[in-house]
Amino acid sequence: MANNDEEAVGETIFGRMLTGQEPSRFIYEDEQCVAFDDINPTAPVHFLVIPRKPIRQLADATEEDQLLLGHLLLVGNRIAREQKRMAADGYRVVINSGHNGFQTIYHLHLHFIGGRQLGWPFG
Ligand code: AMP
What we know:
Bound molecules: adenosine monophosphate
CATH class: Alpha Beta
Structural class: alpha+beta
Shape: globular
CATH topology: HIT family, subunit A
Number of strands: 5
Order of helices and strands: HEEEHEE
Number of domains: 1
């Protein structure tokens, strides 16, 4: 399967959703991040949380991003608990970073996945 390692910051589909150039249905937004359901869910619940700041991948995050990264996790947890009602049964958070992580969209995003028991380990 191809990947888009060369996709530039600000030119990703997620970047265009943030600027309104691409249609989007946010399930949550604040001044630092937005969240939306994954277009190709791998489980009954699968949503993404992305920062407004165009960090390409987790590997590019710095100390400056420490509070932002914590915020993304807590926002996802709140959505999992309050909107998706899956916190009690558990869920998984995934961040694919770079080529070997099979990242396909180079705007940092956290996958929140649940609604059924997931297998482990995955490939
Ligand atoms: P990753 O492989 O971690 O880069 O994951 C990218 C994710 O973005 C995949 O799960 C895709 O299904 C999802 N995706 C791609 N385009 C859209 C879109 N327009 N809206 C919502 N999710 C999308």
